[in-house]
Design goal:
The protein is an all-alpha fold. The chain has one domain. Helices cover 75% and strands 0% of the residues.
Length: 195
């Protein structure tokens, strides 16, 4: 394998994947997943109304918007602290157990998946704001760009219609045309030549 074909964008993406995998290895699968669950659950709990807490804050805060925000923020903070404390206790128990190696191995897998999701999300966001032909040369010549484009094309049907911007739809259309052209070229090149 010749590494001089990779450009700085490929190196950056590979570094991001490796960094995410290392963080996953250090933290472990349980801490990573329970950390995400803690943030998600705390956010969900914070969206609920708590009249007792709102009445408590109403003594000092008279602006209705600030009152609502402060009560939701307090609920979010308290629930996040509780969930993270429970996560820490569980992780301390796992550290001394026999499943620590499995926890770290799954942490690497989790980290790689997280890194790939971050990269794909970043590229999808770029398609919302920059025309495909205006992407810098360093990105268009990147070896991993074709994989990212295929992932974005496969995700497109699952994105809600209301998040599609005209520029994003135009970029997706161009990516589909590019993929069809590549398939035609592959079929032509793989067809047996008459002798």
């Amino acid at each position: 394998m010749e590494f001089h074909y990779f450009n700085i964008c490929d190196v950056f993406l590979l570094t991001l994947l490796l960094f995410s995998a290392i963080v996953g290895f250090i933290r472990g699968f349980v801490r990573e997943t329970l950390g995400l669950a803690a943030w998600g659950t705390s956010s969900w709990i914070a969206l609920k109304d708590f009249p007792l807490l709102t009445d408590f804050f109403a003594k000092w805060i008279h602006n209705p918007l600030l009152l609502k925000l402060s009560s939701h923020l307090a609920v979010f903070s308290l629930s996040l602290i509780c969930f993270l404390f429970l996560t820490q206790l569980l992780c301390l128990w796992i550290q001394g157990s026999i499943i620590q190696s499995i926890n770290r191995s799954l942490g690497i897998v989790f980290g790689l998946i997280r890194g790939f999701i971050l990269i794909t999300t970043g590229y999808t966001a770029a398609l919302y704001f920059v025309k495909l032909e205006e992407h810098p040369e360093v990105i268009t010549s990147c070896k991993s760009i074709s994989l990212l484009q295929k992932v974005v094309l496969s995700m497109d049907p699952y994105l809600p219609e209301k998040v599609h911007s005209p520029l994003f739809l135009e970029n997706i259309k161009k990516l589909k045309e590019k993929e069809v052209d590549a398939q035609k070229l592959t079929e032509e090149l793989s067809a047996p030549q008459p002798q």
